[in-house]
Amino acid sequence: MIDPISAFLATASEAQAQETTPLMEAPVAELPAGGLNYWEVITTSGPVVFSCLLLLAVASIFSWAMIIKKSAQLRRARLQSVAFLESFWQSRRLDAIYKSIEELPESPVAQVFKAGYVELTKLSREGETRNDDDLESVQRAMRRTSLAEITHLEAGAPYLATVGSTAPFVGLFGTVWGIMKAFHDIALMGSANLATVSKPIAEALIATAIGLATAIPAVVAYNHFVSRIRILESEMDNFSSDFLNIVKRHFFKAQDKRASGS
Prior knowledge:
Mean pLDDT: 81
Structural class: mainly alpha
């Protein structure tokens, strides 16, 4: 005689096995080996997104070229300015310093000295008694050269500022367009599965990433360059003040004493 309880348990076990077996044997979708192919996503993107990516790539190339060029320029300007200041304070003759600055063409401080020395030489050749107007003439010459040197040092920096401020918005435009395309594909296919929206969403996210990758180095480099240019500007201003004091003390007052003694 069969036990009813044992028969019930055996029937329940068979039913549970029939329900769980299909779930266990169901195939699982596998991702492609290597993950997402970013190059394929970029090359097969729509014309609008691809244009945004191409624009960001070109802007990034020019941005890095400007960063390398400007870094080398400011480094030479700093090293040559340090060398000029050491030579200036160690020397006792202005004409000897003037001859030595030919070897320091990248030093903005040396160019400021050159402008002041040339103007002072013109005034000395005139042979007249010096006054405050002549000192202001030397000061104006040095100031003009200082502004010209600052303009030369800042050349190219506005491009980095422009890239840093606009690249994220170009990437954002590509992102918005990619999302719009994703919703458009959903509407056409009538389904919102992952296969429908994954490609345009990936295009959108890549546009955002490249926009940020283009903007961040440009902003960091721009702020760094502006800081270094301001330091050189301060050095030019300080040197101009020191040079004018030397000129006033050793040239103008000396001439006043000779004029009063005669």
